Amino acid sequence: MPRLTIVVAATRNNGIGRNSQLPWRLSKEMAFFKKLTTTSPEGTINAVVMGRATWESIPKKFKPLPQRANIVISRNEQYELMSVDAGAPSTPVYLHSSIESAAARLVGPYSMERPLHRSFVIGGAHIYNATLALPPTSDTFVDRILLTRILSPAFEDCDVFFPDFLDDNGTDGNGRSWKRASFEELKEWAGFDVPEGIQEENGVQYEFQMWVR
Ligand code: NDP
C-alpha cells in the first residue's frame, strides 16, 4: 500500500496560513522542504500533492515545483493549471478533481513518466484534513508527518489551521497512535543532514520533527 507523507510547518496552535499565504518567510526552512521533497534515487521522482489554493499561493516563477511531479486537486475539472506559468516545461503537472483520483495516479503502474519514489502531501488545510482521514484500508494512507514546529512567535493571526492530529490520548481519534520519531530516525529517513535542535531565522524559532503512526 503506498504511503503518503505530510509536510507542514505549523505553530504550537497549528496555524499554517494567513491571507492565503505562509505567515512567515524562512529560507532555510524552504530549503529543507525542497531537499526533502526532491531527494530520490537516480531515475525516480517524488510527487507533491496540493490543493488548488496552495498551488495559487506559490509565486508563478517557482511553479510547477521543479524536479517533482506536481499534483493539484480542484473540483473544477476545467481549471487552467498551466495558464499561470509557462516555465519548467519538463516538470510533470497533473490536475485531479478528487483525492481518490489523485491517489489512483500515485498507485497506478503507468501513472508517472518515471517510477515514483515518495509522495508528499504539501497542503493546505483542506487537503491535509482529507488525506489524514483516509482509512488505512484505502489505496493510500498517511503514516508520516514531517512537521516544522514554529515555536515562537505565536503567529496568532493565522486564519488556516492544520488538524489537531493528536487527541488527548496521543492517538488519531481512530485508536492509532502517533509517535514522535527520534532525530536520528528523521535524518535517516530524510537521507541528508537535517539541522538538529531549535533553529532561528528572522526572529522565528522552529524545530524539525517527524511523527509516525
Ligand atoms: P488548499 O490548498 O487545501 O486548497 C483548497 C482547494 O482544494 C479547494 O478550494 C478545492 O479547489 C480543492 N479541494 C479541497 N478538497 C478537495 C476535495 N476533497 N476534492 C476535490 N478538490 C478539493 O486550501 P486551504 O485554504 O485549506 O489552504 C491554503 C492555505 O494554507 C494558504 O494560506 C497557504 O499559504 C497555507 N499553506 C501552509 C502550509 C504550511 O506548511 N504552513 C503548506 C501549504 C499551504 P476548488 O475550489 O478549485 O474546487
From TrEMBL:
Pathway: Cofactor biosynthesis; tetrahydrofolate biosynthesis; 5,6,7,8-tetrahydrofolate from 7,8-dihydrofolate: step 1/1. CDD domains: DHFR (cd00209). GO terms for cellular component: mitochondrion. Its EC number is 1.5.1.3. Pfam families: DHFR_1. Keywords: NADP, One-carbon metabolism, Oxidoreductase. One of its GO terms (biological process) is tetrahydrofolate biosynthetic process. InterPro entries: DHFR, DHFR-like_dom_sf, DHFR_CS, DHFR_dom. Gene3D superfamilies: Dihydrofolate Reductase, subunit A (3.40.430.10). Residues 3-213 form the DHFR domain. The keyword Oxidoreductase applies. One of its GO terms (molecular function) is dihydrofolate reductase activity. Belongs to the dihydrofolate reductase family. This is Dihydrofolate reductase. It comes from Trametes cubensis.
